[in-house]
């Protein structure tokens, strides 16, 4: 059999390997354009579990700190008074609270710098699994800070949680794009954004006075982080690694074939494997260019500028700051304090619906 026939031949499934989770209504569906969807329940589970334990946590921690703001500031005051014998002055309290809120973003920046090293050594799936260690450390620090009487634990926990978010939001989109067929890659990528919105909404919901938004229960808001962490730790190990990573970094073609078979829900994955192999060969023969070289190249300059401007506008629109300080913003606007939590919840609900609607339109 020559090489061309070998590439076109179906890849036999290992009889010792369990069959992929398949859903008949998924594998037989036909999207717009008349092409068959090749995917399985394993792909759906990977996207949902990955997003729930990653982007959901990021969104949750954007909003969870908003509702208990007055109670946390009271905790800061009491901790300061026990140590120094007097209450904290307003300027210092404002500074400490600003650090508590903003250090989450600083941790995210640190996390993004760690991704390249960790992701290459551990792979996409195991990076997501190891990243849960940051989340567990953060939730223990934040949830136990009141009991320990140390507000520094809350600040440090926010920083570590930011590291978790920076790693998760960098690795998860890579993992989802590399395990999904091209026909649904864009829609599956939107799962990350949808779960961020769901996380924001959940943080606002649990922060209601009727639930965990009370002086005696605000530490439990951070303890909730354990739920998505445990779900991901229990579920993700049973799913394959990214086939693209297996070929590019581990040179494991057999493992990549099995991963494709699991995620796509079909036996013949020779076309998908060959596409990744061709990309790998092309990458070995190409040279990486710097950002400055990209900007100097007329063929891609405007594409780079467009991407930079779009992402800059998205990040600088101030949405995260709104979630951090929603109650304060609505209070300054003259809204009665007893109504603010429910108006805040409505904003998160609208954002979630908008994210879901945009995915449907895609």
TrEMBL record:
Single GO MF annotation: fructose transmembrane transporter activity
Region (Disordered), start-end ranges: 1-37
Top-rank lineage group of the source organism: Eukaryota
Segments traversing the membrane: 41-60, 95-115, 127-149, 155-176, 188-206, 218-239, 304-325
Major facilitator superfamily (MFS) profile domain ranges (all copies): 47-362
Species whose genome carries this gene: Tursiops truncatus
Subcellular localization, as worded in the UniProt entry: Apical cell membrane; Cell membrane, Sarcolemma
Cellular component annotations (GO), alphabetically ordered: apical plasma membrane; sarcolemma
UniProt keyword list: Cell membrane, Membrane, Sugar transport, Transmembrane, Transmembrane helix, Transport
UniProt similarity note: Belongs to the major facilitator superfamily. Sugar transporter (TC 2.A.1.1) family. Glucose transporter subfamily.
Keyword Lipid biosynthesis: no
Protein name, per record: Solute carrier family 2, facilitated glucose transporter member 5
Family matches, as PROSITE patterns: MFS, SUGAR_TRANSPORT_2
GO BP of this protein: D-glucose import; dehydroascorbic acid transport; fructose import across plasma membrane
Membrane-protein topology: Multi-pass membrane protein
Catalytic activity of the protein: D-fructose(out) = D-fructose(in)
Pfam families: Sugar_tr
């Amino acid at each position: 059999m020559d090489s061309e026939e070998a590439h076109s031949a179906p890849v036999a499934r290992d009889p010792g390997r369990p069959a992929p989770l398949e859903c008949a209504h998924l594998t037989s569906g036909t999207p717009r354009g008349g092409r068959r969807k090749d995917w399985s329940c394993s792909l759906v589970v990977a996207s949902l579990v990955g997003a729930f334990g990653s982007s959901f946590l990021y969104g949750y921690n954007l909003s969870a700190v908003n509702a208990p703001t007055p109670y946390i500031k009271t905790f800061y005051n009491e901790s300061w008074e026990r140590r120094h014998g007097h209450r904290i002055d307003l300027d210092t309290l404002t500074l400490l609270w600003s650090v508590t809120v903003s250090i989450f973003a600083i941790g995210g920046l640190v996390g993004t710098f760690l991704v390249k090293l960790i992701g290459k050594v551990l792979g996409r799936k195991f990076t997501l699994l190891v990243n849960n260690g940051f989340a567990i450390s953060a939730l223990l620090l934040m949830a136990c800070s009141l009991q320990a009487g140390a507000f520094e634990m809350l600040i440090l926990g926010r920083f570590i949680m930011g590291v978790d978010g920076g790693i998760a939001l960098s690795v998860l989109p890579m993992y989802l794009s590399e395990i999904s067929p091209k026909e649904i890659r864009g829609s599956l990528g939107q799962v990350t954004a949808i779960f961020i919105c769901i996380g924001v909404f959940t943080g606002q919901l649990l922060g209601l006075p009727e639930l965990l938004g009370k002086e005696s229960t605000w530490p439990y808001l951070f303890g909730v982080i354990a739920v998505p962490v445990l779900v991901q730790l229990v579920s993700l190990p049973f799913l394959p690694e990214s086939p693209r990573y297996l070929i590019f970094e581990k040179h494991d073609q057999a493992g990549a074939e099995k991963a494709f078979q699991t995620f796509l829900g079909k036996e013949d994955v020779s076309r998908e494997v060959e596409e990744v192999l061709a990309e790998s060969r092309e990458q070995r023969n190409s040279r990486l260019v710097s950002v400055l070289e990209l900007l100097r190249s007329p063929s891609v300059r405007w594409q780079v500028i467009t991407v930079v401007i779009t992402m800059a506008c998205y990040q600088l629109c101030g949405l995260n700051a709104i979630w951090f300080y929603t109650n304060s913003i609505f209070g300054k606007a003259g809204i009665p304090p007893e109504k603010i939590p429910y108006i805040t919840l409505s904003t998160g609900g609208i954002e979630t619906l908008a994210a879901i609607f945009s995915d449907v339109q895609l």
